Amino acid sequence: MKNFIIAGFLILGLLCPVFAVDKTELPSETGIVESIQYEDVDGLQQGDNSVKQVALVKVLSGKYKGTERLIDNMLTGNPAYDINLNKGDKVILHAERKSDEIIDADDVDFFIADIKRDSALLWISALFVLLLLAIGRKKGVYSLLSIIATVALIFFMLMPMILSGFCPIASAVLVGILSTVITIYLVGGFNSKSSSAIIGTSMSLIFAGGLSLLTIYFAHLTGFAGEESMFLYSAHPELDFQGLLSASMIIAALGALMDTGVSIASAINEIYETDSSLSVRQLFKSGMNIGKDVIGTMSNTLILVYLGSALPLVLLSSNIDLQKFFNLNQVATEISSAVIGSIAILLCVPLTALISAYLIKNQKQNIEFDFDNKE
């Protein structure tokens, strides 16, 4: 087990490129709001509802730790963009140099970038990890390692590949398959059950990639379904945004596909362990019967995930003609993502059932290495 984990992280290390840091850009710092004053904004042409907060902020990190700055914070009345500060709030400070050469603190301007939220994120993440380890035990450890590996693949492999000009769809499929292999072998061990789930999931993932490409073409989806796409376009206009949309559909469906593949393969394996006299056809039929139950819940789960993330968009339908609503680019994108993921799950069931029935029935009588049954 130890050798496998070390080898896995060595592979990830070889895949991780070294990110070039822009040395001309100053690092962000943390600050705390010590006091706030409100000033009149007449004549600033910021709108009738605008208010200016003048915040006294103490820098808590970095080279200028301990210094205090008066920073203007405009409130325009738009909650999507306003940062409403209160005394005691911790904030992220964006630093900008006034000149090419920094001699002292007066040569640097600070601006409030946003509220500091990572502390809350760390607490909720720590709770998740503790529950995962307490309930899952060894399986929880392997699940945690697989999560770390998947996140590392996305940030250190998928992201650099796309930014370097590689095809987003091919990159997403490759990362999805690697994540599937690492996750299922870590959690399920090296055996026919895990191999069947990996093959079934990978084939379904490739199908989802092809189907998303066709859907984007025939539905004339642009890939610009949110503000983040516009921000990315301003920074990297050379990227293939339709390809990025397809890649996002592939990655979004990956978790549900792995869950479906493992459920079918594990069920067939348990059936075979109970009655090894069953034929491939009988095992396949049993897998399909189980798959019919899995299909309903997993497809429903995927649809609900997309509906939940797009709830403001759903509520918007009450104010728009339905024909116009369903033909909005953003709405069509969300529907396409949910349906493509559900179709991939439907395909994953018979594929995994057939592969599992064949591999598990015809597996060689050798010792299979399983992390939970190592002898």
UniProtKB/TrEMBL annotation:
- InterPro entries in UniProt: YibE_F (IPR012507)
The answer on whether this UniProt entry bears the keyword Transmembrane reads yes
Chain segments annotated as transmembrane: 120-136, 143-163, 169-190, 197-219, 239-258, 294-315, 335-360
| Superkingdom, taxonomy of origin | Bacteria
Q: Where is the signal peptide?
A: 1-20
Pfam families reported in the protein's UniProt record: YibE_F (PF07907)
Q: Which keywords are on file for this protein?
A: Membrane, Signal, Transmembrane, Transmembrane helix
Name of the protein this chain belongs to? YibE/F family protein
